[in-house]
Amino acid sequence: MIRYARLVTPLGTLLATATGGALTGLYFEGRPHAPMIGADWVEDAAAAPFAECATQLREYFDGVRKTFDLPLTPNGSPFQQRVWIEIARVPYGATITYSELARRAGAPGSARAAGTATGRNPLSIVVPCHRIVGSDGSLTGYAGGVDRKARLLDIEHALAGTLV
């Protein structure tokens, strides 16, 4: 059974989805790849892990959290899973290119495929795909919108040296 909740953040409302107590999705509402709420879905803001996710997001936006510690079970192909694992390893306040991401995911020369997998990341912010940039450092693509990507990076760059 898919449970869902809407989590309000300074950058807009996120649609959170979970099964079996693990977060399966965190999408900016109305953006590409955000799922439509199914007739069989149950809205349940009290279900695990929504309360903890909301707390950790608030801490992130308040500048007191660099990493997330939530049970995650995103659904994707083996390549997408490898890409998302590597995205999660990019440190707070840092960026890497899609080309570097592809190399780290075991597919050197596959920057476009890594970009496609990045765009399908179902766990916005928690799996920080906003930290992946173009080969020239430009802010290219972000399912939440490039303006949000810039704001997330601004938050991290401003606080990167101040958090423990």
Number of helices: 5
What structural class should be given to the helix and strand makeup?
Answer: alpha/beta
Number of folding domains?
2
Instruction: Choose one word for the global shape.
Output: globular
Low-confidence stretches: none
Q: Using DSSP, what is the number of strands?
A: 6
Please explain how this structure is put together.
There is one protein chain. This protein is of the alpha/beta class and 164 residues long. It has 2 domains: 3-61, Double Stranded RNA Binding Domain (2-Layer Sandwich), CATH 3.30.160; 78-159, Arc Repressor Mutant, subunit A, CATH 1.10.10. Helices cover 32% and strands 17% of the residues. The chain is built from 5 helices and 6 strands. The protein has a 4-stranded mixed sheet with strand order 3-2-1-4, with helices on one face. A two-stranded parallel sheet has the order 5-6. Strand 1 (3-9) and strand 2 form a beta hairpin. Helix 3 (98-104) crosses helix 4 (111-119). The longest helix is centred in the C-terminal third of the chain and has 14 residues, at 146-159. The chain is globular and about 40 Å long. The chain starts with a strand and ends in a 5-residue tail after the last helix.
Question: How does the SSE layout of this entry go?
Answer:
Blueprint (H helix, E strand, L loop, with lengths): L2 E7 L2 E8 L2 E7 L13 E2 L6 H12 L16 H11 L7 E2 H7 L6 H9 L12 E2 L12 H14 L5
Parallel strand pairs: 1-4, 5-6
Antiparallel strand pairs: 1-2, 2-3
Helix pairs in contact: 3-4
